[in-house]
Amino acid sequence: xxxxxxxxxxxxxxxxxxxxxxxxxxxxxxxxxxxxxxxxxxxxxxxxxxxxxxxxxxxxxxxxxxxxxxxxxxxxxxxxxxxxxxxxxxxxxxxxxxxxxxxxxxxxxxxxxxxxxxxxxxxxxxxxxxxxxxxxxxxxxxxxxxxxxxxxxxxxxxxxxxxxxxxxxxxxxxxxxxxxxxxxxxxxxxxxxxxxxxxxxxxxxxxxxxxxxxxxxxxxxxxxxxxxxxxxxxxxxxxxxxxxxxxxxxxxxxxxxxxxxxxxxxxxxxxxxxxxxxxxxxxxxxxxxxxxxxxxxxxxxxxxxxxxxxxxxxxxxxxxxxxxxxxxxxxxxxxxxxxxxxxxxxxxxxxxxxxxxxxxxxxxxxxxxxxxxxxxxxxxxxxxxxxxxxxxxxxxxxxxxxxxxxxxxxxxxxxxxxxxxxxxxxxxxxxxxxxxxxxxxxxxxxxxxxxxxxxxxxxxxxxxxxxxxxxxxxxxxxxxxxxxxxxxxxxxxxxxxxxxxxxxxxxxxxxxxxxxxxxxxxxxxxxxxxxxxxxxxxxxxxxxxxxxxxxxxxxxxxxxxxxxxxxxxxxxxxxxxxxxxxxxxxxxxxxxxxxxxxxxxxxxxxxxxxxxxxxxxxxxxxxxxxxxxxxxxxxxxxxxxxxxxxxxxxxxxxxxxxxxxxxxxxxxxxxxxxxxxxxxxxxxxxxxxxxxxxxxxxxxxxxxxxxxxxxxxxxxxxxxxxxxxxxxxxxxxxxxxxxxxxxxxxxxxxxxxxxxxxxxxxxxxxxxxxxxxxxxxxxxxxxxxxxxxxxxxxxxxxxxxxxxxxxxxxxxxxxxxxxxxxxxxxxxxxxxxxxxxxxxxxxxxxxxxxxxxxxxxxxxxxxxxxxxxxx
Length: 871
What we know:
This protein is an alpha/beta fold. It has five domains: 2-90, Ubiquitin-like (UB roll); 98-112 and 119-269, Alpha-Beta Plaits; 278-344 and 543-715, Rossmann fold (3-Layer(aba) Sandwich), CATH 3.40.50; 350-528, Dimethylsulfoxide Reductase, domain 2; 746-870, Beta Barrel (Barwin-like endoglucanases). It contains 28 helices and 36 strands. The strands form ten sheets. It has a seven-stranded mixed sheet with strand order 14-13-26-25-24-15-16, sandwiched between helices. The longest helix has 19 residues, at 290-308.
């Protein structure tokens, strides 16, 4: 125990900290400009100087560690005079434009000058001049205000890992600028804006639109973009969000945000927002009343059920919707319609992967705390670049690398390029061969431990079955493989991050089993890279055709009875159709009605032409969404739902952490769960749901896992799986080895293949409706590597023609030297030119999800950028 005294107040500490940190914990304010809770101590501004007994000189409290018996004074005359002098020097060049500056009211320099600064300046020299820069669409720089505290640079390099900005020149000509010049070439996380103590780095989107004192209220809530579930404060004025801000002590992101979370929230006020119900009349959608829209939807659902049976009706849930909305939809399907035909795009990756790993390692095997990544002794990443898909999760991998933890990546991951100790970029579709070599090499150095005899028997059978079926050719040298094996052999409890590309392929079951073997050998912890804010919530709420809320199997009579007693209705025991099975059934005329909530099927499903044909054959297509999209344009009834900040509810992130999504503004639409509840009522079943509290209460009653959960518990930040409930922990005893004949063994050289690009700046339908995000990256392009570029002789900005067996289109080219072979990466943002719209698919027999590997395309140069400009 360490005891120190600050300003006469005795403070007891369990461990050595800086004087500044000790003072903060005790509520004693020490001014500072260069220090920030998210950054390492710097000691640059000298404003935090304090007087320490028995020390002849003033000391910087942000770098000076406490010692037992230390006596500190923070407001002596000597200290105050030193602060006044430092502020006087800082104001020599700082413009006195506070009434004009957007930082006024929350400026650290302004606040400290008011308390400690000189009344007048003694320096007569003219202030330095540097023009305000508007070259960037998002960030405005004003270097006349810069005090060179280096907070922004330390945030960008030491925390974000982007290394996009630096201090140029020397002396009084020094200023901060991006390495790229006027426009930033960075990840646009905006964290540099957050830590800037003055108005040197500001958001161009908010410039001159408000002042801090205009903010009417602040609401702590959860981001609506990816499965990390970052917390931030939405600042409200005039019933609209003007800005989101973070706090170092708030949520699991600890003050950090990505570009989508910080700037992308404006999709909620997009011109595509649905505000009134629509109904199909005379070949077009016409505005109608809520009463007519709900009555028509409910009436047609009832009619289809009576005419064709419950199995002719399906529902699509969404990871963009809250737990409460998704729970209501599955209850509508099971207790009112009487069918288990409910699924979502989570069934394309997250759901099947989680099920596979839980069958081997037990329920909850994939639900691990994010901070465990930096506490691990190794990181292995495959299937997605977390720096692009889930950026704050990607920061954990970068932080682990900076701590000296080995990071092994498989595949093209530009965001982790500088942080991976071993980057393995195999030929297209040769990952099984690579993993087989890694496992074989590892087993020679580290035999199985005998802990799980059942799974070790599976490993032996699998390795025997693959020895002759998997070629060693993956396009990597023996030295690369050996280095990776050596890196993996050092790991005893690594974090294994797994993304979508592992599962959306014909040999997904082989890859997942190989990863399971790797996880077992390394004693690894699994992290599924969740692309939507509520992927885990969809699984937990029973939005799968074979499971009920809480993960209970629908075929179990004893477990199903608990839900039937609560719902007052029988639930069918047979598994329902998965999403792509529903599309096939609609195409064949077997599925007659489909209720789509929060999902744009014509953007997020492959071969959109086939999907569109299927949807047009339906007798009833109900779309409940916040934004008009391609799927809604085909609907018979469109029901506008409240957007993310307009509704109360909860999300469950990839850790299994339930978080409270709070209502921040009022909306013109209706809450999603309420729409569904009204439809059930018109059909003849009244649920008596008045608020989301009633839905959560019913969930905690029927789901053994969610027992006793409240929104207050979620607000505490500790509502983690298995909550207060009863998880299933049985390990599978009837595991079936995957068919290794599914593995592609033919060479892919010389042929071009299409893959969906992992985008940092876009996120499907909601991302493309953000005006801020649209400023940063075009919605459509084709990203190719050097090998394909040599064949095509194109430059960045040239236009190429891309053709598959499904469709053709023209796309601008971006050259990325890090892309290997003949792969072509296209984003899935614009429905008419999205990657999935080009793709053919086959049904994966194990998971009933679309396999997208092997999509060959033809690409050729159409015209150069110069020719296009001239035209």
